[in-house]
Amino acid sequence: MVEAVAAGPRRRRMADVLGALGRPKVALMLALGFSSGLPFMLIGNTLGFWLAEDGIKIAVIGFLSWITLTYSIKFLWGAVVDRIRAPLVGFLGRRRGWMIVTQLSVGAGLIGMSLSDPRAHLGVLTVMGIVTGVAAASQDTVIDAWRIESARDADELGLLTAAYSLGFRAALIATEALILLVAQALGWPIAYALYGALMVVGLAASLLAREPSRADEIMEAKAEQTRRHPLAGLGDAVVGPFIQFFQAHGLAMALLMLTTITAYHLCDYMRGPMSNPFYQALGIAKPTIAAVRATVGLGGSLAGIALGGLSSVRLGVGRTLIIGAILQPIGIAAFAFLGWHGGDWTLTTIVGVPITAFAAIMTFDSVAIGYSGVALIAYMSTLTSLGYTATQYALLTSALTWSGKTLKGFSGVIVDHLNRGRSLTDAYALFYLLCGAIGLPAILLCLALAWSSRRPT
């Protein structure tokens, strides 16, 4: 499907792989992945931790997770960045210009959140969170387009996807784990301001990146067509990507693809807003959470990313999707053991170092999420076409996020309901089991997708 990566994969020697890791494009992709991942938790789960510490009601925290719905309408931002040059810096190119504008906007939004006290100005903080969310979703859209359009072949697309995933995961560690230590020492407002300033990492990468020339030529041709026929150009920008996608795959197969993508990470999205309040209810201290996330959590994520990439090559994307769909609900449901126990406990001791249940479960969960994430990103990246890259990939990621980011707003209400007649930790245990069960339809859909893909056209 992707003209930019039409060349088939060939057998790679280890020297080829190691040499590819030194490409400047891969280093830039790593930095852009970090920039893309930086705001994700700061308007999601980490914001929930801040609000919980400031005494905001759990149901309100759940509702405020709807800020991340800005990620669910990415196809709107995709249509903009595919057709319109960025203001002021558009001369740098369609992709680079929008990366710079969105990165500056994310940084400004995070700093604006840092200046808002949740207890006194929750409304202002919410507005700044929405601003950050719109800018962050737009940044994701244009970075995804640059990643796909810049790849010379399928091998390089896989390499850039892995680098993006690694950078994104590093940002999640920084915004889920390390920020807890910063907040413990300096307070949440200063922590958010410092992380807003960290957007300079992505800004530097955008300035150093090269505009994908082939894609830019196609987009300029479409822009010229729009200038000659404004209504036709508008129609092509809005509905053209959808029509082309359904024509390329067929209605039934396209709907199955979108449904599978929609359900794939639903179990992970549902548990998201309650993760940090759950750890707080278990009595696990912030430094402990940060230490586990930054050590075994990070190691598990890196292992999952590596295994996901290796599995995609050796087993194929279809089988890798199925394995990831199975691993996710198991990892999520395992947290129920912590709720039933009422806290953390030591499983064993290795060389005098205690291995706790929290650390073990967190490690497996990180492997599962890292593995499945790489498989899904690689799969979706092969489904787009030049000329519609940003909008079509945004359509796929919107399908991925819209249900989860909508339904997760009710996560706090679900925990409150389960808490009636039960202890809070028991309520959380049942909640995590429910989230695990939500992952079961994704397994069936992946199996149906694999079966349909093998059928002759």
Fold and architecture overview:
The chain is globular. A two-stranded antiparallel sheet has the order 1-2. α2 (24-42) crosses α8 (154-186) and α18 (317-333) runs antiparallel to α24 (440-454). It is built from 24 helices and 2 strands. The protein is mainly α and 457 residues long. The chain has a single domain (16-454), classed as MFS general substrate transporter like domains (Growth Hormone, Chain: A, Up-down Bundle), CATH 1.20.1250.20. It has helices at residues 14-21, 24-42, 45-53, 58-64, 74-83, 94-114, 122-150, 154-186, 188-197, 200-208, 213-228, 230-238, 240-249, 251-264, 266-271, 275-282, 286-314, 317-333, 336-341, 357-381, 389-407, 411-418, 424-438, 440-454, and strands at 346-350, 353-356. A hairpin with a 2-residue loop joins β1 and β2 (353-356).
Key structural traits:
457 residues, Growth Hormone, Chain: A, mainly alpha, 2 strands
Tell me roughly what share of residues is in helical segments. over 70%
The geometry reads as globular
> How much is the radius of gyration in Å?
22 Å
Sheet-strand content, in percent, reads under 5%
The helix-and-strand class reads mainly alpha
Unreliable residue runs: 1-15
CATH level-two architecture: Up-down Bundle
CATH names the topology as Growth Hormone, Chain: A
SSE inventory with pairings:
Blueprint: H1 14-21, H2 24-42, H3 45-53, H4 58-64, H5 74-83, H6 94-114, H7 122-150, H8 154-186, H9 188-197, H10 200-208, H11 213-228, H12 230-238, H13 240-249, H14 251-264, H15 266-271, H16 275-282, H17 286-314, H18 317-333, H19 336-341, E1 346-350, E2 353-356, H20 357-381, H21 389-407, H22 411-418, H23 424-438, H24 440-454
Antiparallel strand pairs: 1-2
